[in-house]
Amino acid sequence: MKSKRLRALLLCAATLALTRGYWARAADEPLDEETKARIAKFEQGPVTIDVSKYPPGIQENYEVFSAKCTQCHKLSRPINSNYALPAEWERYIKRMMRKPGSGINKDEAKKIFDFLVYDSVVRKKALYDETLAKASPDEKKAAEDKVKEIREKYDKE
Ligand code: HEC
């Protein structure tokens, strides 16, 4: 009896693992050359971020980011990307969530978003400032309000 249940359980786990792999691969639709080159450049950089000086809540969110965003590609892809504004992160996280088999829920997406916004104004400060300088007044205001909200939430921990 026990071993039968165990076998059924193992079969379930194996099926799940296989279908997950299938969907992850299916998400790899053909990309144009420009996108491919951009992504290849992102992936050349580091695969981790030193979060030891970040607030505890942001360190926890980093764990969610590194678990969820490494299912289909290396973490170096988002880490070294040239996205820095909250609106850019929102767009890319939503895009990744929509990919079949991503398994990212709303709560996890929010944690990943908070992490990426926080990290962008600390580690990627120069890029953030440069991008902000090119943004429209509305985009600038939206970005600054969001950054303020997130910094206030985590910095006071
Ligand atoms: C289900 C698979 C999957 C998961 C999970 C996933 N990605 Fe992706 N990601 C892809 C694919 C496929 C591409 C290339 C096609 C594209 O950009 O849509 C990509 C591309 C990217 C790019 C480069 C986009 C560009 O065009 O410059 C970034 C940045 C990125 N992902 C960040 C993330 C982040 C952040 C997460 C976690 C929230 C994540 N990915 C989770 C599949 C995934």
Question: How would you describe the overall organization of this protein?
Answer:
- This protein is an all-alpha fold and 157 residues long.
- The chain folds into 2 domains: 1-29; 31-155, Cytochrome Bc1 Complex, Chain D, domain 2.
- Helix content is 70%, strand content 0%.
- The protein is built from 8 helices and no strands.
- The chain has helices at 2-26, 33-42, 56-68, 76-79, 86-97, 106-122, 125-134, 137-155.
- The longest helix has 25 residues, at 2-26.
- The protein is globular, with a radius of gyration of 18 Å.
- The model has no long low-confidence stretch (mean pLDDT 90).
- Heme C is lined by residues 24, 27-28, 31, 35, 38-39, 68-69, 71-73, 77-78, 81, 92-93, 95-96, 99, 101-102, 104, 112.
Tell me the layout of helices and strands:
Elements lengths: L1 H25 L6 H10 L13 H13 L7 H4 L6 H12 L8 H17 L2 H10 L2 H19 L2
Helix pairs in contact: 3-6, 5-6, 6-7, 6-8
Bound molecules: heme C.
Heme C binds next to α2, α4 and α5.
- Strand percentage lies at under 5%
Largest pleated sheet: none
Assigned CATH class of the largest domain = Mainly Alpha
Domain tally: 2
Whole-number mean pLDDT: 90
Corresponding CATH superfamily of the largest domain: Cytochrome c-like domain
Bound molecules: heme C
SSE class: mainly alpha
Pick out the low-confidence regions. Answer: none
N-C termini distance = 51 Å
CATH topology of the largest domain: Cytochrome Bc1 Complex, Chain D, domain 2
Global geometry: globular
Total number of strands: 0
Secondary-structure element order, N to C: HHHHHHHH
- Tally of DSSP helical segments: 8
CA radius of gyration: 18 Å
